[in-house]
Amino acid sequence: MSLSKAELLDVYRVMKTIREFEERVHDEFAAGEIPGFVHLYAGEEASAAGICQHLTRDDFIASTHRGHGHCIAKGVDVFGMMAELFGRSSGVCRGKGGSMHIADLDLGMMGANGIVGGGPPLICGAALACKRAGKGNVAIAFVGDGGSNQGTTFESMNLAKIWNLPAIFVIEDNGYAEATSSKWSIGASSNAERARGFGLPAARVDGHDFFAVHKAAGEAISRARSGGGPTLLDCKLDRYYGHFEGDAQTYRGTDETKKLRIDKDCLKIFAERATASEELQQDELDAIDAEVVALIAEAIVQAKAAPKPMEDELLSDVYVSY
Question: Which of 105, 158, 203, 299 qualifies as a FRET site for 228, CA 20 to 30 Å off?
Fold first, then answer.
């Protein structure tokens, strides 16, 4: 493997943190503790981890409504994230962004987005800034299979090609745009084929396989950093939960999610490969599991204890002042 032992352990920690964060958010939301709506990333961890492993603090990402995994993989503080979901003033957006608008601009995380296909245009702007700065930074838009059908996404790919921007478009095709199967909502055989129509290099990868994602992302990001322009990555993966928390998921087959957790668990696939090569030991992974469980539990305790925004703070950071 191209990664060192320390890097492999870090990758596993990131994926396990995403998984535990989402599983606990699922429980807390069901208990009525979290306001608003949440859309969980559990099952898709290898995509965010495989791509963001290549990024620096000065690179940019724009997310979707399903943004917790991208935030964690980019390095956003878990305690600040949990507080944000609980609507507390210690949250990364002071409790006013919530799940769907969580962001941390200091880390290049431009935000989750309630607008389907809202991220690609933002990334074109960020990528243009990167190109003009000339420091080799890149910008990445994560888009779902529903967002892949939006005109904003097509226009952004076209613009990125025309301007030769250091932009990467990542389509996370989890099989359903809300409840609509991507098997018949995407006219081409894949999003990779679509991208080639705009003149973009494209790769289709198994989004459950961290190593496949990491390799394809590394090639795309390296090309962008060196002036080679934009790329599209078509990641085929699956989500364990519904489109949103409370989704009855009547569009899914019998025991579909149960089978996914058995057959397509990206953490298990990663662990089996890393331990089979003897680069990692199972007890090392077990130790990380325990540490992450404790971390997320403490994040929930602190979030619940944190104050809510004061009334005189409610309109701050809402309007831009020039």
Answer: 105
Task: Give residue-wise pLDDT tens across range 268-280.
Answer: 999 999 999 999 9
For residue 316, being part of any structural domain is answered with no
Does any domain span residue 322? Answer: no
Taking only Cα atoms into account, the Rg of the chain, rounded to an integer number of angstroms, comes to: 19
Q: Which residues contact 225 (CB under 8 A, 6 or more apart)?
A: 136, 137, 138, 166
Structural domain range at position 263: 5-309
In a domain, 271, yes or no: yes
Under 8 Å between Cβ of 317 and 96: yes
User: Roughly how many angstroms between the first and final C-alpha of the chain, as a whole number?
Assistant: 50
207-266 residue pLDDT tens: 999 999 999 999 999 999 999 999 999 999 999 999 999 999 999 999 999 999 999 999
Say whether 140 sits in a helix, a strand or coil. strand
Tell me the mean pLDDT in the region 63-68: 97
* Reported pTM: 0.96
Which residues have a Cβ under 8 Å from the Cβ of 156 and sit 6 or more positions away? 120, 121, 123, 124, 141, 167, 169
Question: Is 315 within a domain?
Answer: no
Q: What CATH number has the domain bearing residue 29?
A: 3.40.50.970
